[in-house]
């Protein structure tokens, strides 16, 4: 079986083999090649020691030389080249205390996480598959190399990676691997928040985010996101809902942002939208009440959920821009858009025009997870609001101070003193322009400002 590999990867392999060493592309790139997917990264494994790799290539960086990894730089591209190695004792469920180098490829491959990631390839030798990776690819199965419990003891992050790969590849997790995950899920408490965030995000932005159910069923969310477990057991006896909070949440996550191939949003926007839907009802379990009408109500869950989500996202070390966008959308996710031009402009001013397209997507997804009987009317309302917003944008109507055709300098030039009063005047002028967009002309606004003194 011959595969086409990038010429720079081939150059590295040929250069190492030309000096008498073994060399292969290894891991995820081999898996993706077999699946007909485009590998994002190309890793190379070799029998050459790090200092020998450095001698062969002109430009290298010691990115992880203590673990046998040297980065080879070719033009603007870089490739990690790692010496065959044996891992020592794992002390923290994440990394070995020490590593030692070996000349045996099998020893290197047997320390890897899953069979589908434990294959090596070069055009001369073909695929080296010592642990049934090809068979597992054929059967669309995630299985550990060797003993699953041992693999998870070594690196507990593999527990999350198993479910993440199942979501990205649309594979199923093999039964003994599932049992080991259930048994070892508690070890995830030893994994850094950054690593947890990265794996959860990769799962969420995949085309199969419904694998959230696996995270719950296997006891993973109990450790990394216990609030989700509370949602999975919180009922919604309510006209608008047909599912409990957790099932509603999973359905909305699946509905938001579409398939990756549709390319409707940037990856950051996709991340924001998927996390928003995961957390949008996070505080329904803590705000549930039973009204006189016999229905469940969740008063204040939006604002409380925004605060809880902010804490969760901070703990997971999200960047501020992404965090603020998610929290903002959660705060407004239950907002009913006014269906008049003026009302929609006021809404855009209040929420922020830059968030409106994302909020429409959130509203569509939220409605998709509700009672099918009420969906049609809700979808119509959202579409109406979307059309009003589109018209507003096309006409370039002003809904923020930065779009106002007058600013503080203009008012000072007209004799106004800077200060709190000027800020109040600008705010009132904005209200007038939102009501009547034709007023957004400097000379008109100066006269209006004078009347507001």
Short structural description:
The chain is α+β, with helices and mostly antiparallel strands and 453 residues long. Helix content is 52%, strand content 11%. The protein has helices spanning 7-18, 28-35, 50-56, 105-109, 133-138, 148-154, 157-169, 175-184, 193-204, 212-217, 221-224, 226-232, 245-255, 267-279, 284-287, 301-315, 320-332, 341-351, 353-368, 372-394, 408-413, 420-435, 442-451; strands at 23-26, 43-46, 60-64, 69-74, 77-83, 85-87, 99-101, 119-122, 126-129, 141-142, 172-173, 289-290, 296-297.
Q: What number of structural domains do the residues give? A: 4
The termini sit apart by 82 Å
What share of the residues does DSSP label as strand, in percent?
5-15%
Mean pLDDT: 95
Task: Report the major sheet.
Answer: 7 strands, mixed
Structural class: alpha+beta
Question: Gyration radius, to the nearest Å?
Answer: 28 Å
**Number of helices in the DSSP assignment:** 23
> What's the total count of β strands?
13
List keywords for this structure.
alpha+beta, single chain, Beta Polymerase, domain 2, 13 strands, 23 helices, Hydrophobic Seed Protein, Hypothetical protein af1432, 453 residues, 4 domains
Characterise the protein shown here.
This protein is 52% helix and 11% strand. It has a 7-stranded mixed beta sheet with strand order 3-4-5-2-1-8-9. The radius of gyration is 28 Å and the shape is globular. It is an alpha+beta fold. It has 4 domains: 1-139, Beta Polymerase, domain 2 (2-Layer Sandwich); 143-224, Hydrophobic Seed Protein, CATH 1.10.110; 227-397, Hypothetical protein af1432; 401-451, no CATH class. It has helices at 7-18, 28-35, 50-56, 105-109, 133-138, 148-154, 157-169, 175-184, 193-204, 212-217, 221-224, 226-232, 245-255, 267-279, 284-287, 301-315, 320-332, 341-351, 353-368, 372-394, 408-413, 420-435, 442-451; strands at residues 23-26, 43-46, 60-64, 69-74, 77-83, 85-87, 99-101, 119-122, 126-129, 141-142, 172-173, 289-290, 296-297. The termini are far apart.
């Amino acid at each position: 079986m011959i595969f086409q590999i990038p010429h720079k990867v081939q150059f590295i392999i040929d250069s190492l083999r030309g000096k008498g060493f073994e060399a292969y592309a290894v891991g995820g790139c081999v898996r993706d090649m077999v699946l007909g997917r485009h590998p994002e990264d190309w890793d190379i494994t070799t029998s050459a020691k790090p200092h020998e790799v450095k001698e062969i290539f002109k430009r290298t960086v010691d990115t992880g030389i203590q673990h046998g990894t040297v980065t080879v730089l070719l033009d603007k591209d870089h490739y990690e080249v790692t010496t065959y190695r044996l891992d020592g004792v794992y002390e923290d469920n994440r990394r070995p205390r020490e590593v030692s180098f070996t000349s045996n490829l099998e020893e290197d491959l047997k320390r890897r996480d899953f069979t589908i990631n434990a294959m090596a390839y070069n055009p001369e030798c073909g695929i080296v598959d010592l642990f049934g990776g090809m068979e597992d690819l054929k059967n669309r199965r995630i299985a550990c190399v060797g003993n699953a419990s041992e693999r998870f003891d070594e690196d507990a992050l593999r527990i999350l990676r198993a479910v993440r790969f199942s979501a990205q590849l649309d594979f199923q997790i093999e039964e003994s691997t599932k049992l080991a995950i259930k048994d070892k899920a508690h070890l995830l408490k030893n994994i850094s928040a950054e690593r947890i965030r990265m794996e959860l995000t990769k799962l969420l932005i995949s085309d199969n985010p419904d694998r959230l159910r696996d995270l719950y069923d296997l006891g993973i969310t109990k450790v990394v996101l216990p609030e989700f477990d509370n949602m999975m057991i919180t009922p919604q006896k309510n006209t608008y809902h047909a599912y409990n909070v957790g099932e509603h949440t999973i359905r909305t996550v699946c509905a938001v942002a579409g398939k990756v191939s549709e390319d409707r949003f940037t990856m950051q926007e996709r991340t924001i939208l998927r996390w928003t839907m995961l957390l949008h009802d996070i505080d329904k379990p803590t705000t549930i009440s039973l009204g006189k009408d016999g229905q469940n109500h969740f008063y204040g869950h939006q604002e409380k959920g925004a605060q809880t989500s902010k804490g969760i996202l901070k703990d997971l070390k999200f960047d501020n821009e992404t965090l603020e966008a998610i929290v903002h959308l959660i705060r407004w996710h239950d907002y009913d858009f006014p269906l008049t031009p003026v009302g929609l402009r006021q809404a855009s001013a209040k929420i922020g025009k830059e968030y409106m397209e994302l909020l429409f997507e959130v509203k569509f997804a939220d409605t998709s997870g509700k009672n099918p009987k009420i969906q049609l009317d809700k979808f119509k309302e959202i579409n109406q609001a979307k059309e009003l917003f589109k018209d507003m944008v096309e006409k370039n109507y002003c809904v923020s101070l930065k779009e106002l055709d007058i600013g503080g300098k203009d008012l000072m030039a007209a004799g106004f003193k800077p200060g709190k009063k000027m800020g109040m005047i600008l705010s009132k002028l904005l209200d007038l322009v939102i009501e009547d967009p034709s007023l957004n002309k400097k000379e008109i606004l100066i006269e209006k400002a004078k009347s507001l003194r």
